[in-house]
């Protein structure tokens, strides 16, 4: 995509200082921008970059007074940050998520339905009796099993796999390679030490505005539903086991794993590589720091947890501060022991 | 799928109390069941749910005596749990794994062979000289490289990738996005600090009744085979490196990683997010708790390990109990020091 | 593939002792070799295997003097290890990475270009305005988004997903299921506790000779580029967040996660399951042991880190050695307390 400085100024209802005919084809930070880039200056802490930037054009405030000459063209607007964010959203929409139409070959069962204004990439697959909404974007190699429902405006990136019976809300994003609805890890031990597979016939439900990261895995419920509630954001390579529930607007960072039947509250934050045991309940607004292992339910709201096994963040920081000096602690103890009890004669 | 209460009773050789013509289209727990659901009551601890459930029909024992009126229809059988499990297995088979036939376009090399009664989903790929058994289910977007062998009754879910030369036994399950046979992570350091890739020409062997989780990765051997023995169950996002061996009926939970050439015994249990160093041997019936890091071989059978680095579970629990109180321990030590040696004069 | 002993000897410029007409179809370690295998003996520590091996043929040094009769044929060369490695590379090239031509159906946008001598597997997808080099191998189900650039000699295995705008250098390897260029995990908290998605419009750049493991995920930059520099090797299931930089010839083992904007130096080694916080800088030649959690920048080169939170390896080993004996430490402390302050009278 390529626009002129003047075209962008018109969209932003800004005024141009400099050559409005120059072409711009990318957005960049002001300190990294090269020729052809559009950047912005919002926080005046970074004003010095304005006088050295190689950007073709910079969005600045209408009220900014220049202290030195600037080689870039300027677009003056009321709020540079808001204007730049609008361009970011436009750019992403245009370059990635704005695709429409059907590329052949694509597979859709005759019994499936899909709303208008959609994209179905080549080699995408939609199974029997699926009900897909309008404005849905389905990238190549996406697998959508039988009887799946997907709401309006949802985007499914390349090669995501959605097992049969899954229900996905509106305006969700499923990133590439994510697996939604795989069998829960349920095996009944037999007398001879082998395992018999417990059938997993539940499903996964994603409510509206949920985001699922690349190569994340979400198992279906044994019975009933694994549920990710409205607005929850799940990062790459996260594992959510069967019958897990994730509350509204909860954020789970990369490589975290949640064991079966655990219920996480609303507005929680789980940092990266956290592990949670099964059948726990985590109260609303719980925060768990990276690499922690949670083995107990948390009933009080707003708790901060750290460690493996996890306990209160402040206590954990204190314990870790001593941990590093354990050899010294042991030496001090030994010294006291020697003082208390003089060594035996040879 | 939809059946009447009467049809289900007939299959289960049970007797109906109530309206046998009602349709049923899902299975559910008795406390979560809604209209249209079939549920069961086995453990009498949950009998009170029978009198409030919204299920359309509940499977109960022939000998159950009702204490109150029940709105659901009943199917009376000898053993409600066994009957319900049979329905679960039937349901899963019918809805997911019972697909048969070929959806076009699907790719199979002319030199490959496949047994009868199979399913090959659209966009599935079978390479040269593959030998695939009967009753095999291959979902869309599955990649099967050249010279792969797969036994009867195995199911490969959407988008699993099986590299060339892999050997898979009978009645295995490979979940969506799993990668089997990728190159081992082998690089020889060069004098200039760069790395030269060591060719990885071995393969992966899955014996019978093995289950591989979604987006799990199993590297091929450098030479020889990475082997997953009979009945082993591997969860989502597990990493098994080159030349690893996993013993019979061993269970490995999600996000665990096993480094190169490590041999895990039979009937072991590795919980989630465990890490194992390379070139270790783990005796039969070893259990490793979640997030532990195993750095040494275990020769004695039946050991329980915890911690990173891992040692005996009981000792680990005790050490962790003290760890939390390290600040207090340090304070007590300081107090003793002060008592032993009065502060110097100012 | 099958060759005769004589054909292999000719390629290696070696001389045959024994039956040169025997067929060989696999390479194996000398102690594991069966009929049909070719093996080698380089380290004389393993010479005893030569007299018991079931290999069809063994590559040995021209100068080796036999102490007992050998049933295998021999190929005598100057340097058995180098000759065997050459065969390994030839074998891998022939069996996996030497594919050429186009299998139908494959999708390539009319505006995309690709150099000569390439392979495009069935169901592979190449988007608009892509520029793909020569000698490139693209396995089935690979997704390459719009405007991606890929250098000569790069191999992309089955089902890897490369988002739009990604730039990949020469002779890179991307393993099956890897996702390159997914959205960074960026969400701006709103006053009501919900999150607004921050558009991620940057890209990912892989320089030359980079290797990416199976099902690894590399997020695009918010603005600018996530960069993996020349010769870096990234293992399976690794997560690299938005705007991360990985230095030249750095090795990152399986299941490690690096948070946003962290810069890792050249020649570093991160072992498996390591976690790194965001916005850190790691000096060249830093080594981090398995399962460690790095929360601070490291400015000095050549440091070894361990633990979660991580500190110097030697101090960490010492602290862990005491940690195991914390219960005993506490008992010793209690004893001193009792000595210092006799128990009160009953």
Automatic annotation (TrEMBL), chains A, B, C:
Keywords: Acyltransferase, Lipid A biosynthesis, Lipid biosynthesis, Lipid metabolism, Repeat, Transferase. The active site is at 242 (proton acceptor). Residues 23-89 form the UDP-3-O-[3-hydroxymyristoyl] glucosamine N-acyltransferase non-repeat region domain. GO terms for biological process: lipid A biosynthetic process. Belongs to the transferase hexapeptide repeat family. LpxD subfamily. Catalyzes the N-acylation of UDP-3-O-acylglucosamine using 3-hydroxyacyl-ACP as the acyl donor. Is involved in the biosynthesis of lipid A, a phosphorylated glycolipid that anchors the lipopolysaccharide to the outer membrane of the cell. Homotrimer. This is UDP-3-O-acylglucosamine N-acyltransferase. It comes from Hymenobacter actinosclerus.
């Amino acid at each position: 995509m390529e626009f002129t400085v003047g075209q962008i100024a018109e969209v932003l209802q800004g005024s141009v200082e400099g050559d409005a005919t120059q072409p711009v084809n990318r957005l960049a930070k002001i300190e990294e921008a090269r020729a052809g880039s559009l950047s912005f200056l919002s926080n005046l802490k970074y004003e010095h970059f304005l006088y050295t930037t190689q950007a073709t054009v910079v969005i600045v405030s209408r009220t900014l007074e220049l202290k030195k000459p600037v080689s870039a063209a300027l677009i003056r607007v009321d709020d540079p940050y808001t204007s730049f964010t609008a361009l970011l959203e436009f750019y992403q929409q245009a370059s990635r998520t704005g695709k429409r139409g059907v590329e052949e070959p694509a597979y859709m069962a005759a019994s499936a339905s899909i709303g208008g204004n959609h994209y179905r990439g080549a080699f995408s697959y939609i199974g029997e009796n699926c009900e897909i909404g309008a404005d849905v974007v389905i990238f190549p190699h996406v697998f959508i099993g039988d009887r799946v429902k997907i709401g309006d405006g949802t985007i499914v990136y390349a090669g995501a796999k959605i097992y049969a019976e899954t229900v996905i809300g509106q305006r969700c994003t499923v990133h590439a390679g994510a697996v939604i609805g795989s069998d829960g890890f349920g095996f009944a031990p037999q007398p001879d030490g082998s395992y018999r597979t417990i059938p997993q016939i539940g499903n996964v439900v994603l409510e509206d505005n949920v985001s699922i990261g690349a190569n994340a895995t979400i198992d279906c419920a044994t019975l009933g539903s694994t549920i990710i509630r409205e607005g929850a954001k799940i990062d790459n390579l996260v594992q959510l086991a069967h019958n897990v529930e994730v509350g509204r607007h909860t954020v789970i960072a990369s490589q975290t794993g949640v064991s079966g039947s655990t219920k996480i509250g609303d507005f929680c934050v789980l940092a990266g590589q956290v592990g949670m045991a099964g059948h726990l309940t985590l109260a609303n607004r719980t925060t768990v720091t990276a690499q922690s292992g949670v083995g107990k339910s948390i009933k009080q709201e707003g708790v901060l947890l750290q460690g493996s096994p996890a306990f209160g963040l402040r206590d954990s920081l204190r314990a870790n501060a001593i941990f590093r000096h354990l050899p010294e602690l042991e030496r001090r103890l030994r010294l006291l022991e020697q003082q208390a009890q003089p060594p035996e004669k040879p």
